[in-house]
């Protein structure tokens, strides 16, 4: 079995208002890119703050790189880079000055490391501009740069692409892919942009109301749902009834988007298209769906009915 970078057993955190985490069992192995999925308040940030030692559990155990003892956990956390909630930056300092401060905190002695991580996150040209004048996206980039300073073996990232434009999101994904695939960095990452998370993670954990309700691999996600044929037409009801009769199938339906939807298995696409054309059905769109992380999560928590 691959070595565990992080393990939790029976982990709970109780506040007067209730449980933020409730008997959570979780394992992240070396080399994993683990996508952490859950609604606001589900417990994602609480767990990440526990990994960082900011929040202490009410019950249960936590291990980092196989270490559980308090003193050993402190040492293990030096191998982790964190971006949890908003990055902690000094608004009166520019990017290099902020990174210089954190280099002293982390004991980073490589004088070129600050410039290196700024290049990695696309902030090389930030110059003397103060962090207090940064956009939200620039602050997120600088926060990621801080997390990378100590060349971490494990990255814990809470909404790292928050505030980034589409090009910035792609750049950050490429950085994380490079860290994972070329340098073997283990990553725990949460994001509300589930389509983006699906492009990056190889394993997913779904948390709901403080409980880890499911873990699956990217391969299992791909196998979890049928590939569906979706047909957009101006007359979906009539066309769907015609297809049910002609194809002798009862699994043809109209989805919430108003598209005709039927499973791909057992359907000859050429015959289907010919049938639609012969019957004069106006076709505005025709596509095949792929298993979708967002839909899987919504189905899992009971909010994804079509």
Descriptive overview:
Keywords: ATP-binding, Nucleotide-binding, Transport. Belongs to the ABC transporter superfamily. InterPro entries: AAA+_ATPase, ABC_transporter-like_ATP-bd, ABC_transporter-like_CS, P-loop_NTPase. This is ATP-binding cassette domain-containing protein. By secondary structure, the chain is α/β, with parallel strands linked by helices. The chain folds into 2 domains: 4-223, P-loop containing nucleotide triphosphate hydrolases (Rossmann fold); 228-290, no CATH class. The protein is 36% helix and 26% strand. It has helices spanning 44-51, 70-76, 95-106, 113-120, 136-148, 166-183, 194-200, 218-223, 236-247, 269-278, 293-300, and strands at 4-15, 18-29, 33-37, 59-64, 80-83, 154-158, 186-190, 203-208, 211-217, 228-233, 253-254, 260-263, 283-288. The strands form 3 sheets. Strands 5-6-7-3-8-9 form a 6-stranded mixed β-sheet, with helices on both faces. Strands 11-12-10-13 form a 4-stranded antiparallel β-sheet. 34% of the residues are buried.
């Amino acid at each position: 079995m691959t070595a565990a970078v992080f393990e939790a057993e029976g982990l709970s955190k109780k506040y007067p208002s209730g449980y933020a985490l409730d008997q959570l069992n979780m394992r992240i192995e070396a080399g994993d890119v683990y996508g952490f999925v859950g609604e606001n308040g589900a417990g994602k940030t609480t767990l990440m703050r526990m990994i960082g030692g900011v929040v202490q559990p009410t019950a249960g155990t936590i291990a980092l790189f196989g270490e559980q003892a308090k003193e050993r956990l402190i040492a293990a956390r030096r191998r982790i880079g964190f971006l949890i909630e908003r990055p902690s930056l000094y608004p009166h300092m520019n990017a290099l000055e902020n990174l210089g401060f954190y280099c002293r905190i982390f004991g980073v002695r490589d004088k070129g490391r600050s410039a290196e991580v700024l290049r990695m996150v696309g902030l090389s040209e930030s110059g003397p501009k103060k962090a207090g004048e940064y956009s939200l996206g620039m602050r997120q980039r600088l926060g990621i740069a801080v997390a990378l300073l100590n060349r971490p073996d494990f990255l814990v990232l809470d909404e790292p692409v928050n505030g980034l434009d589409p090009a910035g999101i792609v750049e950050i994904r490429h950085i994380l892919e490079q860290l994972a695939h070329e340098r073997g960095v283990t990553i725990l990452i949460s994001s509300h942009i589930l389509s983006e998370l699906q492009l990056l993670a190889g394993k997913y954990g779904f948390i709901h109301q403080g409980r880890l309700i499911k873990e699956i691999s990217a391969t299992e996600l791909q196998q979890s749902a049928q590939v569906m044929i979706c047909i957009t037409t101006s007359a979906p009801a009539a066309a769907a009834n015609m297809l049910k009769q002609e194809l002798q199938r009862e699994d043809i339906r109209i989805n919430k988007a108003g598209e005709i939807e039927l499973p791909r298995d057992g359907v000859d696409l050429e015959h289907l298209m010919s049938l639609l054309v012969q019957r004069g059905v106006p076709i505005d769109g025709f596509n095949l769906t792929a298993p979708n992380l967002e839909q899987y999560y919504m189905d899992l928590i009971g909010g994804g009915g079509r």
